[in-house]
Specification:
By secondary structure, the chain is of the alpha/beta class. The protein is built from 6 helices and 9 strands. The protein has a single domain, classed as Glutaredoxin.
């Protein structure tokens, strides 16, 4: 065998080794577990709890209702809808609280209707307000507002301190007097006991709005 033939044979061996190595590498790589998600660099978003709750929404009269304009006041924000049975259950209690504490203690209540998300829209809200004699301002929510406030079910009632920070939250129409008890704690500056945002015993007292979008 001359040197030329020997060189060709060696070249063939090198090519074969490279091809075999490539096949083996691809096979092993294929069997490696794939990541389920990509970890992005945290952006450290600002916390609504740290900076205070914020939202702006149109009212029934077309004027904007801004939560920040009520800084210095204790505020109850109630997410509801005209078609929500459990919401109807607690609205009279809210009406009574507003009548009793708005002027005497500076309590602000804002009802946030979700009828633009599902239902007959704004045309259903005004007759409902008149029927239930709602005496506090009503804002109209869209999906963006609901999502930004972390509301997944109605009624959801937020109790906000004068500094704009969330004090407590009730999801669902609870037992009679629960809204009033939380309102008194808010007015007196008493920190309520820690409770789950979605207690196990609210079945039948809450409507999931995440499934109707």
């Amino acid at each position: 065998m001359n040197s030329k033939q020997l060189g060709l044979r060696m070249l063939g061996i090198v090519i074969a080794v490279v091809l075999i190595g490539g096949v083996a590498f691809n096979f092993l790589k294929r069997d490696e577990p794939k990541p389920l998600f990509r970890l992005d660099t945290p952006q450290h978003p600002s916390s609504r709890v740290d900076e205070g709750l914020e939202f702006s929404a149109p009212g029934l009269d077309g004027r904007s209702i801004d939560l920040s304009s009520y800084r210095g006041h204790p505020v109850i924000v109630d997410f509801w809808a005209t078609w929500c049975g459990p919401c109807r259950k607690q609205i009279p209690e809210l009406v009574a609280l507003y009548k009793k504490y708005n002027r005497s203690r500076g309590l602000v209540i804002i009802g946030v209707s979700c009828d633009l998300i599902q239902g007959d829209g704004v045309k259903a809200v005004a007759p409902f307000v008149e029927e239930f004699q709602i005496n506090y301002p009503i804002a109209l929510a869209d999906e963006r507002l609901v999502d930004s406030m972390g509301v997944e079910a109605i009624p959801t009632t937020l109790f906000v301190g004068p500094d704009g920070k969330l004090v407590s939250r009730i999801v669902g129409a609870g037992h009679a007097g629960e809204i009033t008890d939380s309102a008194k704690q808010l007015l007196d500056g008493v920190k309520p006991p820690v409770s789950p945002s979605k207690p196990d015993d609210i079945n039948g007292h809450v409507v999931d709005i995440s499934v109707v979008r």
